[in-house]
Write a structure and sequence with these properties.
about 130 residues, mainly alpha, 2 domains
Length: about 130
């Protein structure tokens, strides 16, 4: 079961427990450790749509970067240390049809230890300290 489905089941069980108690919403929420506005929001969605209403409806894009993309970024940065994160955004988009932010590229460069902090010579590898 994925996390979103687990959360939906948890909330459904929470509403069942609430119905069995004679507590006011404020007291029940305080006891359960959730905010009353969150309780009302999810309860309304649950009443209107059932369990399906408790699933997140946001349409985000996947930010998982494959090892192939990371390897490509690494190889290009080694060959041309002057490439910026913005340059990589364009290169990755063209080669893999995958849109990544420059911040995401910077995180990848930090992860593979090829980021150029201010005052450093571009492209010089950062020594790993243990």
């Amino acid at each position: 079961m994925n996390k979103q489905l687990e959360k939906a089941h948890f909330m459904a069980e929470l509403f069942e427990r609430f119905e069995k108690t004679n507590l006011p919403v404020r007291d029940f929420c305080r006891k359960e450790g959730i905010h009353t506005s969150k309780f009302y929001y999810w309860r309304d969605r649950f009443r209107q749509e059932g369990l399906k209403g408790l699933l997140d409806k946001r349409q985000g894009r996947s930010h998982k970067v494959t090892e192939e993309v990371k390897r490509y970024i690494h190889d290009v940065k080694i060959k041309d240390p002057s490439k910026s994160a913005f340059d990589f955004c364009i290169l990755v988009e063209r080669r893999f049809s995958k849109s990544l932010s420059d911040r995401h590229i910077r995180r990848i460069l930090e992860e593979i230890r090829l980021i150029d902090p201010p005052g450093r010579k571009p492209g010089k590898r950062i020594k790993k300290t243990t």
